[in-house]
Write a structure and sequence with these properties.
- The chain has 918 residues and is of the alpha/beta class.
- It has six domains: 169 residues, Gcn5-related N-acetyltransferase (GNAT) (Aminopeptidase, 3-Layer(aba) Sandwich), CATH 3.40.630.30; 112 residues, NAD(P)-binding Rossmann-like Domain (Rossmann fold, 3-Layer(aba) Sandwich); 161 residues, Succinyl-CoA synthetase domains (Rossmann fold, 3-Layer(aba) Sandwich); 131 residues, Rossmann fold; 163 residues, D-amino Acid Aminotransferase, Chain A, domain 1 (2-Layer Sandwich), CATH 3.30.470.20; 71 residues, ATP-grasp fold, A domain (Dna Ligase, domain 1, 2-Layer Sandwich).
- It is 35% helix and 22% strand.
- It is built from 27 helices and 37 strands.
- The strands form seven sheets. An eight-stranded mixed sheet has the order 1-2-3-4-5-6-8-7, with helices on both faces.
- A hairpin with a 5-residue loop joins β1 and β2.
- The two termini are 19 Å apart.
């Protein structure tokens, strides 16, 4: 998109790349005066009916005065957003304040979409972004006038999740609605986001045609390997090799074929003519522009220096998705990172999605597609496991391991540098993919961790996600450079746990866990039977099972000479025992026996009562110490690959028990009641929001204790009454007003929270004691202002903090009060907003729960407090930091003694506000 001169007040944070409902990328940005010609061209291209619906009349041309009015806005009371595809305007939305009509918090909204792009969901996207801009500018309500013969426009408002009120006057409909985010509104937004992102990945994994750009005739070059892999997989659509100077010089100097013909055109000489160039026997083209048919997916294997020229051709051709395996970008430092950003901007500006650069490639094993545009030498067969990773070299090793273990894949994406497509996008696709039952992730960093947590929680509620994370940072290099690094992987671990993600430490554990999840049902409980013919191996399995959280209800040693019938009967009995939830079979075959016969007996014993192949309880084994699914324990589908009901085998009993324990922990998380962020019925969010926005005055600052107490009070969080005092006389008067006993406390950060309590004098029962305490503390601390506070019931000191993490957004932590406990890492973390279950999980953290039980504290009061804090910081995002410390909890209730709140402008986070690509 051509750059434009931007006014000094231009709100850059409103510019965004968004996904249309068909998965194509559209760029949004605020309008500027230099857009006048683009706006006129856009209007001229509208059909007569579209103009009539928008302007309530034919309006064949926009008057110059109207063009100036629409392109010259103040970005506050009048805002206009344009949607671009390349340099072409394809949609426009605007709002204008109605203060002149006596409605200072209302604005009139309107938008129009080019005819060729109607039906792509651009109206709702513009509405979301206009509402976000309006809310930022203090507006609370949108109004619109719609022709009564245009019901689709009214449906846009209603289907977006807004509570719409309508009034008819015959020819028009007057629509009004509040723009504040509601649960219904966010639900609609997230559903549309999921659909569009899933569609964009479907465009990648289900292309109708593929071009390999840089398809060299040299079998040692990457482009040749890519083409060979595409052909070997049996891709069901046409394949177009691109080889020539326009393809980055892979085999530069080859003759130009000229004209057009079938992609698999003739290669023989006819009448002395030079045959068209070919790669692996397939007609090749000098550039992607020369391909006569449409191209959905282009995989690019040319040097980084030649990417721009190839990209121009792909953009001109209208390619929908790109996979770039070329290196030399973000992994090469700042210069490469800048090149990568420019590449991403170009790709998105022309409506495309990008995997890479520096990617291994993508695979879709569905027989209707049979796509392998990757550099992996070995791909697992079809299955129901989706796999995402970043590193290409590691991806090759992991794919080989999966193939060795007979773990079939539905699809695979190696995103390389993740300049565009990330694990979040692919998760959205797998959430809607009926061919994927289990998701595997190898995460070196998170692209947008806050969004990942939200999506993962939804996906994990129906499909297990197993993740192994390496590295010390939670963010990609791009995000880390923008917001600063996040080094606390312990926090990341807790946030992932909150989302239901199964976390493992090694690649072996990743596949151990995936195998049982892919082929066996989830356990209904922890009760486990261990059956086998080796007491030593059974004992190892039992020890690991118990230490991993399983309940070993029986261990049955059948002896080394066990017969096939005895083994089968024992397993069958356990499968029918209502007191058993899962079975571990440890089997070392006797000498000179037919192991296949024992395998058949084991399979017969685990068959479902209705004759189906999938057992009613999970079964894992150490059969022959084989790793994966042995042939005898495999139930094959029509495609000849292992299907559900196959029994996974592990080389050691410890690994078998650990994998089963992971499945049980996930099943327990998934079986929890569905919980949503609880509403606080007595909360006054508007009062809290208005107070904070006025208090911060567009700058970041700390609220005074009294200001903080007021904000907390709007959410029913009462701070124990206190008074700020500056003299011994004020201290004495405050104590009498509050009622004895009282405490006198220092207020400076150096003294607040000291474990030695030197900064506080407690249980002062008369005025003399208060005056003495005031004098001593002022001399000791040097604080000009001290605090007199009514004594609260004694109890356990706790602390609640909310910090605005650049990686995860607002994070709430809970633990024992005091700097010593904080230094020891005695904190549990969850991301905001908290569900009721999240709040309960925080309260039952082991380090706190024991003390609460000993003290007879009712945990419900703490759950309620945590939910109120969560609702406050979620509703008022200008609260950047919040600390309640100390909180005293006892059998008499919960008392908040102190608070610190820091407020400031809301940071730009990719998962807040309207939909946008990260």
């Amino acid at each position: 998109m051509t750059d434009v001169q931007r006014p000094s007040e231009y709100p850059r944070q409103w510019a965004a790349d968004v996904l249309a409902s068909d998965g194509g990328v559209v760029h949004l940005r605020p309008i500027v005066p230099e857009d006048a010609d683009r706006l006129v061209a856009f209007h001229d291209g509208l059909s007569e009916r579209t103009r009539y619906m928008r302007y309530f009349g034919p309006t064949p041309t926009l008057p110059p005065r109207e063009v100036v009015r629409m392109t010259t806005v103040d970005y506050r009371n009048r805002v206009a957003l344009l949607a671009f595809l390349g340099d072409e305007v394809i949609a426009m939305g605007l709002y204008e304040g109605l203060a002149q009509d006596g409605k200072p918090t209302s604005a009139e909204v309107a938008f129009v979409v080019a005819d060729a792009h109607q039906g792509r969901g651009l109206g709702p996207i513009l509405l979301e972004h206009l509402a976000g801009a309006a809310a930022e500018n203090g507006f609370a309500r949108f109004e619109a006038e719609v022709l009564s013969e245009n019901p689709n426009m009214v449906a846009v408002f209603r289907d977006a999740g807004y509570q719409v009120s309508r009034a008819f006057d015959g020819s028009t409909v007057h629509v009004e609605f509040l723009i504040d985010p509601t649960e219904a509104l966010l639900s609609v937004r997230n559903a549309r986001e999921r659909a569009s992102e899933a569609r964009s990945i479907a465009n990648l994994l289900r292309p109708a045609s593929v071009a390999v750009i840089g398809a060299s005739t040299d079998p040692k070059k990457v482009g040749n390997v890519l083409l060979a892999n595409v052909l070997a997989a049996g891709f069901t659509g046409p394949v177009f090799p691109v080889n020539g100077p326009g393809a980055g010089g892979s085999d530069a100097g080859g003759p130009d074929a000229g004209g057009s013909s079938d992609a698999r055109g003739a290669t023989a000489t006819r009448g002395g003519r030079v045959p068209p160039p070919s790669v692996r026997g397939i007609r090749a083209y000098p550039t992607v522009r020369d391909i006569p048919d449409p191209v959905d997916l282009a995989v690019i294997a040319v040097p980084a220096a030649g990417i721009d020229r190839v990209l121009d051709d792909a953009l001109a051709k209208g390619v929908r998705t790109l996979v770039i395996v070329s290196a030399g970008f973000g992994e090469r430092g700042e210069e490469g990172l800048n090149s990568e950003r420019r590449l991403t901007e170009q790709v998105r500006a022309h409506g495309m999605r990008l995997v890479g650069p520096n990617a291994l490639g993508v695979v879709n094993n569905h027989p209707d597609v049979a796509l392998n545009v990757s550099l992996a030498p070995r791909i697992p067969g079809p299955g129901r496991v989706g796999f995402f990773c970043q590193s290409g070299a590691l991806g090759i090793a992991i794919l080989d391991t999966a193939a060795h273990r007979q773990l079939g894949l539905s699809s695979f994406v190696s995103a390389g540098n993740r300049a565009d497509v990330s694990g979040n996008d692919v998760l959205q696709y797998w959430d809607t993919d009926d061919d994927t039952d289990v998701v595997l992730l190898y995460l070196e960093s998170f692209g947008n961790p806050r969004k990942f947590g939200r999506i993962a929680r939804r996906v994990a509620s129906k499909k297990p996600i197993v993740a192994i994370k390496s590295g010390s940072g939670a963010m990609s290099p791009v995000h880390a450079q923008r917001t600063g690094p996040v080094r606390d992987d312990r926090v990341a671990q807790m946030v992932l746990e909150q989302a239901g993600v199964i976390q493992v430490e090694t690649i072996a554990e990743l596949f151990d866990c995936a195998t049982v999840l892919a082929y066996q049902p989830l356990p209904a409980g922890p009760r486990t039977a261990i059956i086998g013919n080796s007491s030593v191996i059974a004992s190892l399995a039992a020890n690991t099972a118990r230490s991993s959280g399983l309940d070993v209800v029986t261990t049955q040693d059948l002896g080394p000479a066990v017969t096939r019938e005895a083994l089968s009967d024992a397993v069958s009995t356990a499968m029918h025992d209502d007191g058993v939830d899962a079975v571990i079979v440890v089997f070392v075959p006797p000498v000179a026996v037919d192991a296949a016969d024992y395998a058949r007996g084991l399979m017969d014993a685990t068959r479902a009562d209705d004759g189906g192949d999938v057992p009613s309880k999970p079964v894992v084994t150490t059969f022959l110490a084989v790793e994966g699914v042995p042939p005898g324990l495999s139930r094959t589908g029509s495609d000849g690959v292992p299907a559900r009901g196959s029994i996974p085998s592990y080389p050691t009993p410890e690994r078998a028990a650990s994998a089963l324990a992971q499945a049980w922990r996930y099943a327990r998380w998934r079986a929890r009641p569905v919980s949503r962020p609880a509403a606080v019925p007595d909360a006054r969010p508007e009062d809290a929001r208005s107070f904070v926005r006025e208090a911060m005055e567009e700058t970041e600052r700390s609220l005074t204790p009294r200001e903080g107490a007021f904000v907390l009070g709007q959410y029913g969080i009462d701070v124990v009454p206190f008074r700020d005092v500056r003299s011994m006389h004020e201290a004495s008067a405050a104590a009498r007003e509050l009622g004895f006993p009282v405490a006198v406390k220092a207020t400076s950060p150096t003294w607040v929270g000291r474990v030695d309590r030197e900064g506080a004098r407690l249980d002062l029962s008369d005025a003399t004691a208060v005056i003495t305490a005031f004098t001593e503390l002022q001399a000791l601390t040097g604080d000009a202002v001290l605090q007199v506070q009514k004594m609260a019931p004694k109890g356990i000191g706790l602390c609640v903090t909310v910090s605005d993490s650049p990686a995860f957004g607002p994070l709430i932590s809970f633990g024992l009060s005091g700097r010593l406990f904080e230094a020891l890492g005695n904190r549990a973390f969850r991301s905001v907003p908290l569900t009721e279950q999240d709040a309960r999980d925080l309260v039952v953290e082991p380090s706190v729960q024991t003390l609460l039980e000993e003290d007879g504290t009712d945990p419900e009061a703490l759950v309620d407090l945590l939910q109120r804090v969560s609702a406050l910081v979620n509703d008022v995002p200008e609260i950047r930091e919040l600390t309640l410390d100390p909180i005293l909890t006892s059998s008499e209730g919960v008392s908040v003694l102190g608070s610190q709140i820091r407020v400031g402008p809301v940071p730009t986070l990719a998962d807040t506000g309207p939909r946008r690509l990260g």
